[in-house]
Amino acid sequence: GRAAPRACGVHNVCRLLTRRAHGFYARDAGVAHRKNLGLLRRIMCQESTKFKNVWTTHSASPIAYERGRIYMDNYQCCITSFAQEPRILYQKSKCAKSEKIEDALLLECPLGEMLPNPSDYKASLIVLTVQNWLLRLSADSGEVLEKVYLAGSCCKFFRYLSWDTPQEVMIVKSAQNKLPAAARQAGIQQTVLFYLAVFQVLPLSFIGMLEINKKIFGNSVTDVAVSNGILIVMYSMGLVRLYNFKAILEQFMEQPFDLGQEFNWNGQVGVVGKYPFGLPCNIKITDTPPLLFEASSLENAFQIGGYPWHYIITPNKKKHKGVFHICSLKDNALAKNGIQDMKCCSLEPDWIYFHPDMSGRIIHVGPNLIKVLKLKEVKNHADQMEIAEDFTIVANRENCVNNSVTVTASGRVVKKRFTSLDDDPEQETFKIVDYEDELDLLSTVAVTQIGADGRAHLDFHCNEHGSLLKSIPLKESWDVTYSHEVYFDKDLVLHIEQKPNRRFSCHVYQMVCDTARDD
């Protein structure tokens, strides 16, 4: 048949491919999904649409949430939030302390790939136990699909899971190695600070394990992380150094191993990933790798993002806390208007980060003000960038009057000796800012203390312009002295809070149509 005419008059191949990936054409697979999400957004933001508290539960242990699943009792109980009222997916018997789960990651099936097992096409949960077992569990039943023993003779304390490349490469990190006091007094020195085990996921495969050693990276290393192919090493004096992690794996790999493979390594004979041998430390860094970049920042706070690439730091002095410098990664040049300082007088500091929508923008959050900033070229200076304000969101403090001088009924003038803080609990204060990528909405949680109770509301803002589209009051009291998490997932709002005496509560709100019968 005759070839379809090129859509919308687009003649550039790159633009055509980009528009197709975004689902602009009716025959593409993503267009129906995009239309449905657009409809959901419009329905959700209607004035007649309400969010109703449909379920509340309490627990003596922390509560976690991942993609429509609520986990309780150290991941032994899984509750789905997709149903009209949350219901239990599975309930496992109480585990022993030796089987306690330290960390977990949700693993989702990659699109368009052939996988070896039918179970690989369904979501699963990767968990790390206190006894150094890495388990892959079915997200729907809790059944153990795969198990790997991590710690051989080298390390006994793996504690943290993180993504290098999301849903592709996973890092398992040990706790920092510390010698007992008696060993330190005897003059014994500990040179290995951390161990990192690297895995490819789905199918789960072992890439290698390496150690972070004082002899290579220095004595003052305090922490280490891996993200997007970069090894990030942090030091006690605020220094942050970046190395090419992929190059390290290739350069210092002594011998590759597969899970289940029999091996004879440094006098040990065993099976890779099986008890009691675990994983071999087959990546030995014998020399300092080439340094990609380094910066000094207060409390090691360092972020990279934007286009062209920029980074955000705080000058490494306590007097500069709350002051952020936005600099070019190419030449360390400070962007025009690149010093951001809200001059907040508050107990909790303001915070800043690159917008997760990949737009290259920056979100700066203070107690009563949210600034969304953008990078743009300086006029007549194409090689220089400046920071400009895209939009702002301001807390509702219209009824707040903060006079330092008042006059009593008798006419006596009274002067206050102090000024109230910017995050005074009696004034509306921003506590959480998040981004819902599927609906392209910026969500904020603002809290006001009213008497003994704190009242919070979740607001949805247009991600492009910042205009308020919807406000949802949370019915439960909000205690600002304890930690809170709020998740907004399509038509679901979930609030997890910590209460006194390490009690935890979970409140689930679902989108409903506000009909006369409901009233």
From TrEMBL:
<dbReference type="GO" id="GO:0080008">
    <property type="term" value="C:Cul4-RING E3 ubiquitin ligase complex"/>
</dbReference>
<feature type="transmembrane region" description="Helical">
    <location>
        <begin position="192"/>
        <end position="212"/>
    </location>
</feature>
<keyword id="KW-0812">Transmembrane</keyword>
<keyword id="KW-0472">Membrane</keyword>
<feature type="transmembrane region" description="Helical">
    <location>
        <begin position="224"/>
        <end position="243"/>
    </location>
</feature>
<dbReference type="InterPro" id="IPR031620">
    <property type="entry name" value="DCAF17"/>
</dbReference>
<keyword id="KW-1133">Transmembrane helix</keyword>
<dbReference type="GO" id="GO:0016567">
    <property type="term" value="P:protein ubiquitination"/>
</dbReference>
<protein>
    <submittedName>
        <fullName>DCA17 factor</fullName>
    </submittedName>
</protein>
<dbReference type="Pfam" id="PF15802">
    <property type="entry name" value="DCAF17"/>
</dbReference>
